[in-house]
Fold these 3 entries.
Entry 1:
Amino acid sequence: MTQEPLQDTLPVQPNFPPPKFLNAPLPHIGAWTQYFLHAEIPIMASTAQALEELRAEEDDVDANQLTAAIQVDPLMTLKLLSRMASLRRPGSNTETESITTSLVLMGIGPFFRHFGLQRTVENWLQDQPEARQGLQHLLTRAERAGQFALGFAVHRADTDATIIHQAAFLNDFAEMLLWLHAPELMVKIRDAQAADSTLRSSAIQKEILGVEINDLRQALMKLWRLPELLVNISDDRHAERANVKCVVLAVRVARHSAYGWDNAALPDDYTEIAALLNASERVVPSFLHKIDHPILEAATLGGRITSEEPGEPTEPKEPEKPEEKLD
């Protein structure tokens, strides 16, 4: 995927105080979750600009238009879902909550009143080029994982396809937050993995952060009371469930193919995907190549690649059918 140069463009940011980064691990997972419970979360400059343009026409804006601006940005999606959770009564049903339904329930006016001018990632990480690069890699991977997951769900005729897509898209949100708030620690993890590819990621994370990122992700999702189905689908400890398997395999393929399709781990992925889709393993690679393209505006630091005209439907579109039928 072609990346635009990482540069801070619009909107113009006020004189925010410089961020205070964590340079040492917190003592335990409870300390990490409490930190992120109150931590500021910046969003993509392109998303902030889109929201300001819509704010200027608030009286004419509907939930679909806001969804189009928010759904391309995992950080803004996270902020919206966690805000909506704070407004719910304890024990209320959250299974089918999506970005659009959250906006409808919250209301357009209350959304704009709560979410004022947003600080941008580009501003937040202006002096952290390695963190910007690390975060951009995750944004690209998240977009691809979401596309693969949606492709699997559509092929299986899964009624939860939209939430499956969202779960894969948000899978790396905890790692994104760590790049934003603890870039020095994340650089150490990256360098340790580069120095010895045989080391398990979880072991490196435990050594440097004191926690595993997957555990932090699940703890934050529960703390923020994110939609129940989203939390369940995102829990890879329940990978025997087909909807969870869609997410797990989508994230895995996006990671293994991030630098090309010659990764030695991919053949094992193809075997599992064939079983999930009840398909011939032979046609899985062509199916993945066919659906490996953006379904949304690509979230890119410093700019936005437009794939939709304003007013078009905002739900993720079904991927194209492969020329050779999966059987």
Entry 2:
Amino acid sequence: MKDNVIKVLLKALSWGILAVIAGVIVTVVGNLVTEDPVTFAQQMLNGLQLGFMYAMIAVGYTLVYGVVKLINFAYGDVFMVGAFVSFFGISQYGFSFVPALLMATLACVFLAVIIDRVAYKPLRDAPRIAALITALGMSIFLEYFTALKFVFSPDYISFIRPFELVTWNVGGVTFTNIQLVVAATSIVYFLGVQYIVGRTKIGKAMRASAFDKPTARLMGINVNAVIAATFALTGALAGTAAMLYATAYPQIFTFMGIQPGLKAFVAAVIGGIGSIPGAFVGSLIMGVVEAMTIGYMPLGSTLKDGIAFTLLIIMLLIKPTGLFGDPFEEVK
């Protein structure tokens, strides 16, 4: 009874504070729209484009955490490898968008599964800190190994877009075919992951493994195979996100996965780490906040990263489990 009262009070307090913050945001946004609706709409579109790309990475983070309880810090570097693979597919083999996308996706699926097999599987029953340190080590290894001249090289490389950029202007607001492709792909992947996790046999096995691995094994579930399938799914998300990111922002280098990876991780925490809808919503919030910071704040392009992590700090102080998280999840 006491726990239920505390739970209700905590929820009421956190949502009350969030409601106040939301009211302030609505007031500020209303003023911005009134002053210059065209600029606001343009920055909103830019933010949504960025948010949709963060969403695919954030969903990958939250899937792995949901099943393995691991923050896969090497995930941003899997994303980076996908961008380079798609670049080589386009530049060396003349692939169009879809073949290059498939090539990047398959490469990231393979790499994600190999990383799990080599680095994480031996530590399944070890303390979480051991797996976390291993993830950081794997991230650093991938960044510096791929920077060697005989691998990808440390240079900044201009990415060759696989299709021509088409721009439309409606009422002074400019949008492109890249933004439409990014939004459509991200939404399709989000719905696909939701369907896989919620409605398929492998999804049920993922949820059972996430809830209680020993009991799942007793019920005949191959937990290691389920975890490998989870990493494969996250690899597909990373490969697709990398191709779209490089097409939208056509410059790649071996440390390019750090910032998108961290931002997507922050977005997953804001939405509620372990919640797929939370990761998606948190990513859209992160992308819009970043775009508005660039568009409206002095030195916004310099401050955007600081604002993003300030948002994380505020969320952790007010509602540590995120917007869609359960404050008693670890107790269950």
Entry 3:
Amino acid sequence: MRARVPVSSPGAAVSVNPSAKWPRTARLGVLLVIAALLAFYLDDLRDFADDWQSQIEVEVDKGPCPKVPASRMASHYLEHLHGVEIGASTQNSFALKRSINVDFSDEHEAGMWQAKSCAPATVNIVALGDDLPFKDGTLDYVLSSHVIEHFFDPVKALKEWYRVIRPGGYIFIIAPHKDRTFDKFRDVTPVSELIDRSTGRIRISDYARPIDLAKMEKAGKKMHGPGYQVLPHQLVRNKKDARLEEGWTYYKTDDHHHWSVWRTNDFVALAKQLNLRIIESEDVDDKVGNGFTIVIKK
């Protein structure tokens, strides 16, 4: 027999017989309380599950960083010099010890071209790539890889890079080749169009863009086949008389897509137009291989 202790006894502990059955109404009440608590915390449980799942996905993304070997040509010209890279990325590092990284932001959006499995490149200076905070002739070089095509006005960028390098300094550029990237279905951007952008005769608002490119492309592929592609922009030279097709609107801000498309000779023509001296070029770059290399010397 279990001794019963009066509850009223001061400091006494109450002994409960675990084999005793609760009344049916008590069991029902407890179940209702548990159900209410579960309902109350259900959203929190869902949030916890989503956070936990996202943590798993992040860990999955953090696999080996697929780094591309350094460029022999870049090392040859720039190894012992001091300069900047515009928009560096970890997976495509040039491994130049005296180079610092300039990007338009040190937040996530600046590294949107970074591989998810790689830690983002350190941004040493936050500045626009075509408006650098350096005095004239103070750098040995400016390096960019798969960046210049993202400038609406690449002429302005080239002039700015030329301004900040010293006499004898270099502008080292790797740009995507039209025939070896997703730009292969687009037309080459004429030099005259690039000059008009630089002089202000063509503004960003003169270009139309698809409102929902992914949706438009999906519908087009369903109708025309897997090779169908929607252009990211179209130049409208006479907006007063033009009527945009359904699903298109005009650009208001820069989304940093590939504004320009080149083959090697097309970029060479642009450099000549700007009186820039090219000392070496590669039709197939020695980095990723889907671009071309231009080396300009001041």
